[in-house]
Amino acid sequence: MLTLYHHPFCPFSRTVRIAFGEYGLNAEFVEERPWERRREFLIVNPAGSLPVMIDGDGAAICGVRPVLEYLDETRGAELDGRRLLPATPRERAEVRRLMDWFDLRFNAEVSDYLLTERIYKRFMTPEQGGGPPDSSAIRAGRANIRYHLHYIGWLAGRRNWLGGDDLSFADLAAAAHLSCIDYLGEVPWEEFEPAKAWYARVKSRPSFRPLLVDQIAGMTPSRTYVDLDF
Amino acid sequence: MLTLYHHPFCPFSRTVRIAFGEYGLNAEFVEERPWERRREFLIVNPAGSLPVMIDGDGAAICGVRPVLEYLDETRGAELDGRRLLPATPRERAEVRRLMDWFDLRFNAEVSDYLLTERIYKRFMTPEQGGGPPDSSAIRAGRANIRYHLHYIGWLAGRRNWLGGDDLSFADLAAAAHLSCIDYLGEVPWEEFEPAKAWYARVKSRPSFRPLLVDQIAGMTPSRTYVDLDF
């Protein structure tokens, strides 16, 4: 049995949860609020970041990229056509480039601004960085997302999936970030039809369903969040 | 023949250069100043970041993690005992955790502050972000490095190399970041003997030598930078 330390609105954790669904893996989920810097959690992952996966034998795998590579190495070969990293080194490099694109660049330019200001801060004490949202950070996230939606549409127009012929970790990473932001109603889908069409395909997969039932206390999801025909 | 787009004081590029040395790979090096956002370079890597490796067949591999994984996949198997990712998934996950530690965390908390303020800004126009160094950013980098040197010493005291029994990408990443900062004389080696002893072992490897001849115009390296017996 796998255990995943995660937060329901951590995009990196969501990527792993979708991967579990695609791979047909069951796991026990432990919600962690990384800003609390819980001592027992820091012993497991000194970086204090999410996600952390505990494999059946007790090994802790820390960080979204190490977890996804580990899943591919330990479960990928059995999956054949459903493998989420392609077969050749060059194709794998392209998927990894896009994983970095979403987990580093999209995160720094969009997710981190919007999720910190609009979600995480609600749960943080002042000492942990809580407080009223910073409107200039929110404005930056709202401006930057447009460029990324354009790029997603550009990729989706040239390939079957973002990283190549098959669904891959690149799609999972991109969709995980967007799903958190979509909850907030911050994705201008109507202006970016190709990105919307790609997202609708990922969102309709059974692996995505568990994410759509997550709720933030006191904050209703946007109209588009759960609707598969948004 | 491989080509590497790099900058001499980009820690991510340096990690790949040391890996080339360990693997006995020759490459052509093209210096890139990513802050110039050169159009031809953005076509190769839309993220505009370093390093980018062009393999003999023209494939562009973008980003330090994709490049290192690609090198392991395409050249690792021939290397036997000199492979820089371990054999088992669990050991590989530990090396990848530490790659993330240095490339994300150490970079954000130390390298990015010190290298941007003390090196890159000297070459940037005001429009590119150039200008006088921000002393509060430098102070933050100087404070944060101590915690990381402590952690390196802690790891080195428990293992043969940072990531396990053998030299790995984790050592290369850590040493690449530290080497840039050491040029600036910003590493308080004397207070962190275990980290220093580990760094001396990496620094004395033939793969490291090409880095030690890099110079910044108008800025002499620190006393400890070239000295193998610092």
UniProtKB/TrEMBL annotation, chains A, B:
GO annotation, biological process: glutathione metabolic process
Pfam family for this entry, one: GST_N_3
Transferase keyword on record: yes
Domain GST N-terminal: 1-79
InterPro entries cross-referenced by the UniProt entry: Glutathione-S-Trfase_C-like, Glutathione-S-Trfase_C_sf, Glutathione_S-Trfase, Glutathione_S-Trfase_N, GST_C, Thioredoxin-like_sf
Segments forming domain GST C-terminal: 88-222
Entry keyword annotation includes Transferase: yes
The organism's place on the tree of life at top rank: Bacteria
Keywords: Transferase
MF annotations from Gene Ontology: glutathione transferase activity
Subunit composition and interactions: Homodimer.
Protein name: Glutathione S-transferase
Species per Swiss-Prot/TrEMBL record: Tepidamorphus gemmatus
